[in-house]
Structure formats: structure tokens, C-alpha cells
Amino acid sequence: MLRKHETLPEPVYYIESPEDDTVLVGIGVAIETNTDGLTTITWYDTSHERAMTAEEIHQEDGRFAFKRSAAEGGQSYKFIPMDLSIYNDKVKHELMSGKDFGSKEELIRAFLKTAR
Amino acid sequence: MEMYDRLPSSSFEQENSSDKSEKFLSKIREFKDKIAQKMGLGGEELTKVTDEALVDAARDTISSADQDGERTDEEKEIIHDAVSSVVVQGAMETAGYEQSSGENPIISLDQEETEADLVASIATLHKEEVALPTGEDVAELAVQTIEDAKWSRMKQVDRAHGTVEYIANSVYEKLGIKAVKTEVVSDGRLGNKLRALHEMGAEQVGNYVIFPRDEITCDRDHIEGQKLNLYDKSPAGRIEVSFKLREGTDAIYDKFSSREDTTKYDAISCWYMSNGQAESYALCGAISFKRGDVKVFISEPDTNVRTAHGLVKIEAPSEMPAEEIEKAVADIMENDFGISDALNEVPAESEEDYKRARYAWEHRIYEMHTDDYEAAGKLESSEVAPGYATMIEPGKHKEYEAKYGELCAYHVMYSEETNSIVSTLTSGLLCSSERYQRGIFDDGMSTPKDLKSGGGDNVFTRVSRPDHARAMMKTTILFKPELFDRTDWYAYDRDRYGSTEDDEYQQRLTPDQLFSRLADGSLVQSSNEQMFRTGIGPDYIQEIRVNPAQRDEILAELRAQGVAEIGGRSIEDIVVANENYVAPRPVDPSMEEDWGDDDIGNLETTQQSSAQTKEGILAGTIEYPGVEGIFDVCETPDDVTSLFDAVAEHGQKDKLKTDLSMFIIDNIDNGIIGNFMEGKLDPLDINAVIMKYAQDKLGVDLNYIIETKQKWNK
Question: pLDDT for B76-107, tens place per residue?
């Protein structure tokens, strides 16, 4: 089996899941399939790395979604490229002290600065 | 015993305080004389036997009266006299007028079946103001005896109603009295540590002002981890002492929330410095009250911030002298929380208890056996992160590795900044809650979700075999297996975000369960998680695998800071070039396109369409979908090369060559290209497959690719 590694094109995503309220922001989202065929989705959420095995993935035109493996709970996750509109509507109020930004670039750089 | 009978009954008389005690003292003397005569005892031994006789007589009186389930007035009087005799005798011993070689009889009578009568007796003696001949109040001496014997640490837990009541508190409430001993004495440890922290001062690191921290070990029965955490936040005008109550804040919250001097809607906040100004983030709701200049915060019992469960914070102005802060904290612990001697050294017996509790928690043991007690006794306290100590089982990792093979905990870093990597190497890793307490606030752009899940009190790692950890494509820290000697970590077989929710927490794995699953192959190495409390110190770092292009810069910065070794090993051995490193995508400054919030539809498996696409490309009936489109439908290297061949055969060879060249330029780091050219890359790695095909079948010059990337700064 081929080992594949792919990083999603956008540096920061907004993440939604109807079954998992611990997700919000994904930085450096990557999809890796190992030589046993196991696919793992990883990202940094401003505090910790998250890692989940995926049974199904759907990727099209920059949009991405996956279903977690049944063994890990089977939750569904949707990744939407972060922009100012999404940030102001859905993300800012969930942060420790979300700030206002004048451009998407400023916003993205602020999230990238949280990386450790 | 036959030589004494029950104490004769007597009716109450209106006498003065001392006379009333004399009534009981004379009866006690009567007992004592009889015993001395019969047994020929004297001194402390005589007092001890007299105490035992008085206690037995009181118990017999109570059980006899309760045989028919109803007490007559005469029986009540007899019980009162018998129990009060015990109380007066115990008060004499506490006051120092009697010396016994045994236990104070008040404590001996402190049993479930006699407790109610004991408390009733004390209440009556208090009401009647019965005093010793020398004037000391008998009831106050009795309560002091109870408190001194740590009766305050016994509690009744009504789990059905979620209440916890400290018995000594109930005694105080019922009697409305205070123990004679009101002077709170502590040993100066807290004050000394606060002074040391103040001298250390806050540290400016980049944009952060980092407050110094220390801790003292203390009372174990009430306080989680036996620790008080100390923070000098002088730049923000405050000194903080914080801890977590083992049984949560329910009882203490209820006690204080009804008081008039309590602020009902307050918050426990994390303070940090931002551009020279003190700012705060409200961690959780709380009530608060003041004791002089010192403020006490008690977290809401039902807060949804799990890292704040049981949290209490005592905040003093930074200009307050350390010894005054220590006295204030000791007074608050004693008089408000009912925790005696909270700041003093932990007695040896308590420490042994703690070790057993720690060991049982770590290994999820519900019934300890001889081997377990032995193992627990060998735990040692060790500083595992700067300023934080916990119990470790020295050498336990060797047992694990002997049973389960080589073990490695690893942690992937997402920061590419040299400063961040160097800071990790010199200071280790800190959990979120500790970072916020220390003033490291990331401009507020972090989510507090790990504080809510409970994971925020921990540093996260994953466990794997070393070769898996070394295959990570980012900056990756591999820890020494000694890390598993700690007894303050828990583990899950999947990403649960370190949750401490009851349902999830019950599914945590013991170390043996975790490693056993690693050994049998049922543990996913890339998505399990371990949570290490508070932090992981730099001495635990075995190696850090970095961008090869950055290694020299990191080493130079370490040397500039005077760091040549970490944990006894040279930095050159610890900072290792990661040949699998893949650089993150650069941020595109022109990113203004909004994707919107389109629903991408239902998830569906791509397996069926992948097979059809593959067939179509091979047959030439489906248009060449680009390099990434080919990767999406392939599962093996042979699949990839077959489709490449097919694309070339169907007239798209030049396009394929261009696409593969651009793919390599955009996605494959020069370090990886170099490794491939030196034969160091796994042939099954997609990068290796692409470069081999591009070079061998399409004539792509990889050296030219490297030069092009350097020219374009890619």
C-alpha cells in the first residue's frame, strides 16, 4: 500500500461536527494514509494536535469532510476554509479573547501564531 | 470489666460551672480509685485503664437503653452522665491535667453508634457552661480534642444528594462555638517560597511576561495532589495561591454563598500582561469573600470548565509581605475551610497514604494487595517539570519495555519558529491551564475547549514504536521512556481531547492496557493520546526531529543561550535532522477569496468511483485528471505508475512531465529530494514513487528542480 501525505490547501479551517463539540479551528490540516491503508486526519486546534482515523473522506474544490472510523466513534467533520465572515459569525465568540481583523491575511496569521 | 458498674445516675442541679464539673470529676475519681485498688496501677497506665472503663460504661449505658428502641427520661439522664464523664475526663487530658498512655476517651467514644450522644453531651455541657476547676470551658476543650485528632477530616458523603459535610463543621454549627485553639501556626514554608518567587521575578520572553511559579506539598485529605500552587503575578499587582478541593467545592460553596459578605457573581480569572497592561480572562464563575486585603474565590461546583472543578484561589496584593500572606492563607484554611495545619509539612503517615492513593489511581486498582502496597511504598517525589513535582515509580518503564517492547511517547510541534523550538528544549512543555496561569496568553486566539473538556490540565502525547514517531513529517519530540515512570498520567486509545467527563474517563486505559494494545497491534499509533499533568520537563526529551535546514540555527541559538547539554546529553545528539520533514504551505498574501458556507453534501465512499476512474484512465476513456486526481484513485505504487504509463501512452506525456515537475516543486522539500537522490527514502513513499517515475521515465532533472526551488524560495 502506498503511503500518502497531503496537506489541505488552506492554512486554517473552521470545523463543524454535529457529534463533537470539541472542534472549532484546524491549522495545518493533513491527510495521511499509511502503508496499511489507515487514513489519519491531523490538525492543530490552537492548543493541541488532533488526530482521527477516517473511514470516508470527501474532498472537492477546496472543501473537505470526513467520517471518523466506527472504532473511534463514527462522528462526521466538515472543514470550511476560514474567512472573516465565518470567523465573526462562528468562531470569534468561542475564543479566549477573539479580536477584530481587517483582512483575512491578518486573521490567518493570528491563528498561525498560536502554533506551538 | 467486673470491677466497676455503670455510673450511678444523678439529677441535674443548679450549680455553678465548676461545681457541675466537680460532680463528674468526683465520679471519675471514684472509678479511678476502684481500678487503682483492684489492679494496682498508677500514673499514665491508670489513667488509660480508667478512660477505657469510662468509655465502656458509656457504651453499655447507651446500648442498654436502646435495646427496646425507646429511651426513658431516666435512661437519658444516665446516658448523659456517663457520656459527660467521658467528655470531662477527655477535657482534663487535653488541658494537661491528666496524662494517659492511651487515646483520649473522647476520641474513643467517637464512633458511629455513639457520636450523636457525644455531640448532645458536648452541647449540653456548653449550654450549662460547665468548666474545669481551673476555669477552662469543657465543651470548648472537647471540640478542640476532636479537631486535634483530625476528626474534621472525617466526612459524611451523601452521594445521592451530592453533599459532603465535614463533621467538625457540623459540630461548630450546632454548638455555635469555636475551639479553644485559635492561634494558627504554620512553619514558614509558604512565606519562604513566596519570597523566593518574588526575587525571581517575572520573565519577558518575546511578547509574553511569564509569571514565576512554585508549589508546596501540604494536607492530602482535602487538597488534590497535596499541592498548593503559588504564582507571583506582581506585574499584575497580585500574588496567587490556588488549589483544588478533592471533593469539589459543593459544600464550601453552599456554606459561603448564603453569607452577606460573599460576592455572589464573581469569577476566577487568569491574569496576563498585554502591552504593559494587566488583562484578565474569566476562567469560570465563582463566589468570593474577603479576609482583610486578601480575596478568596471559590469556583462554581457546576461550572462547565472541567479544569476548574474544585478550584479555589486566594489572591493577595503583591505589596503584602510574604509572612502576612502565609498567615492569611493559614487562617483562611483553618477558620473558613476547616483544614487544620494545611500549610505544614505532611506527616510521614499521610505521605504513605498519598503514595498508595496515587499508585491505585495510576493503575486503576480498587483493592490493593501486598504487592501493590510494596510497590506504592517505593514511589518517590520527583520534579518532572520546572516547579512541578509528582510521584514516580523509578524504573517502571523498564518493566513495561521488558513486557511490551520498545516504547516511545512523542509530541508533534506545529510551530516552525526557532524561538519556540528552543524554548521547548530549555523549558519543556506546559499544559494550557498552566500557560494561562503563567501569563502566556497567545493574544486570546486560542480556544478554551480543552479547559472545558478537562484536558487543559495536561500535556498531550501519543505512544508508538520509535520508528513510527521518527516517520512524522513535522517537528517532532520523542520522549525518553522514563516518562512512563510518572504516576500522574492517563491514556485513551483514541483522541478524546483528554476528556475527564465521567463516561469518557471511565474508559481510560491503564499503562499496561495501553502498552499491551501497542504490542498486539490493536492500538492506532497515530491517534491514541496520553495526558501528563501540568507539564513535561526538558530532561525527558530524547530527541527533537527538526527541519534539516533549521537544525544549525537551533543549535546556534541554544549555544548563544549557554545551553550545551540537556538532561546530560549534548544538544547535537538531541536536535536531529528529520529527513521526513515536510514544510508547511506558505501563507498566500492574496487570499481574499471567500469560500462561503456551501453545504458540500452527504459524505459518500469514493471506492466505487475510484475504480471506475482508474479503469477509464487506463483505457483512455477518461480525460487525464491531473497528478493529484491520479493519486486520489490509487492505492499502491503499481497503481500510480500504471496510470502514469497510461497517460503517457494516450498522448499526455509532456503534460504529465510538466505536472509532475510542478508537483515536486510545490510539494516536496529539497531535503526530501536530496534524501531520495541519496537512496534514503522509503520506496513506498508517494514522494519516492513520483520522483523515481519523473526522473527515470520522463527525464526530469531533479538537480535542476532543486535549483529552481531555491531560486523561487520554495
Answer: 999 999 999 999 999 999 888 888 888 899 98
pLDDT tens, residue by residue, B259-317 = 888 998 899 999 999 888 899 999 999 999 999 999 999 999 989 999 999 999 999 99
Residue A7 to residue B585, Cβ atoms within 8 A = yes
> Do residues B159 and B119 make contact, with C-beta atoms less than 8 angstroms apart?
no
Summarize the confidence of residues B207-226 as an average pLDDT: 85
Residue among B424, B416, B422 nearest B459 (CA): B424
Residue of chain A with shortest Cα separation from B477: A116
Of A58, A78, A96, the CB nearest to B446: A96
Cell of B635: 492505492
* ipTM summary value: 0.96
Q: Which residues of A touch B416 (CB under 8 A)?
A: 115
Three-class secondary structure of residue B709 per DSSP: helix
Q: To the nearest whole angstrom, how far is the Cα of A3 from the nearest Cα of chain B?
A: 5
CB contacts, 8 Å: B473 with chain A: 5, 30, 32
Minimum Cα–Cα distance from A51: chain B residue? B527
- pLDDT tens sequence across B655-695: 899 889 888 887 788 888 888 998 888 777 888 888 999 99
Strand, coil or helix: B296? strand
Query: Which cell numbers hold the place of B183?
Result: 492561634
Please give the Cα distance from B268 to B285 (Å, whole number): 6
pTM, two decimals, is 0.69
Mean pLDDT: which of B2-11, B271-280, B409-418, B582-591 is highest? B409-418
Mind spelling out the 3-state secondary structure of chain A? CCEEEEECCCCEEEEECCCCCCCCEEEEEEEEECCCCCEEEEEECCCCEEEEEEEEEEEECCEEEEEECHHHCCCEEEEEECCHHHHHHHHHHHCCCCCCCCCHHHHHHHHHCCCC
Q: Nearest C-alpha of chain A: how many angstroms from B105? A: 56
Choose from B437, B528, B595, B613 for mutation: most chain A CBs within 10 A.
Answer: B595
Contacts of A85 in chain B (CB under 8 A): 594
User: How many CB pairs below 8 A link A and B?
Assistant: 187
Q: Do B585 and A9 touch (CB under 8 A)?
A: yes
CB half-sphere exposure, B27, CA atoms < 13 A? 26
End-to-end CA distance of chain A: 32
